[in-house]
Amino acid sequence: MGGSCYCSSLLRFELGTVPADRNSKLGICVNAMFGLDVRLQAVFDQVRCPTHVDVGSDHARLLAALLKSGRIERGIAIENKQQPFVNSRRRLANLAADVRFGDGLAVLEAGEAESLSICGMGAESIVQILEAFPDRVPPRVFLQPNRQPELVRQWGLRGGFHLVDERIACGHWPYSILTFQCAADRDDPAYDGIDRDAALLFGPLNLRRRSAVLERVLREELEYLQRFDRMEPAGIRRRETIEAVLATWSETPATQTR
């Protein structure tokens, strides 16, 4: 899908409208200092707690940045493959971090961390990790699925985690950055008054604030889907959902602030 240049030009609006704090460095400075790509930068901007765990950290860039910036006091990296485990140990050497070898949350104790991130995996793998040990999932969760973010949103609805923030970071393609908070009430207010099918596919908060990046992405995807005379039922439903969203937006003046 095209439009990455357009997405890049709007990225500051998607990531800069809700900064973690007023004193944080500009995203471009963070990127230069710590080598974070736009996906990890979007997570970095939101994390601030005593202990943060990152599952599938690979080179552990996110944890290293969080520790060096003082956003967290302690980090836990979890890897289930030898080379990423070695990579993470090397990068986190001499930092207040623990690198563990194991499958997902199997090597994390309940209550050991205040927040969790899983970035750069497929949605099915992310959900599998979260549902394997639900009692060990920290109260704050940052997730970046490579595809099918609707599966992650469905997990939040099932598991009692409310969607409190979502952003679109444009790199090789648009990435969804989803932030969840454990809640006593299973009814997530983020979905109130929003078409459920559209909300699961594209994000209730994105739709509510009429994300400029999302609108561009949807228009480009619709243009692509309209080239096909025949599609599977799932493709037809997706196209119709996109058409409905864009039709609603064309009828309603934008209230988004940049």
UniProtKB/TrEMBL annotation:
Q: Which domain of life is it from?
A: Bacteria
Q: Does the keyword Transmembrane helix apply?
A: no
Among Pfam families, the record links this protein to: TrmK
Keywords, alphabetical: Methyltransferase, Transferase
Instruction: Enumerate the InterPro entries for this protein.
Output: SAM-dependent_MTases_sf (IPR029063), TrmK (IPR006901)
Molecular function (GO) terms for this protein are: tRNA (adenine(22)-N1)-methyltransferase activity
Q: Which GO terms describe its biological process?
A: methylation
Protein's name in the database? tRNA (Adenine(22)-N(1))-methyltransferase
Biological source species: Rosistilla oblonga
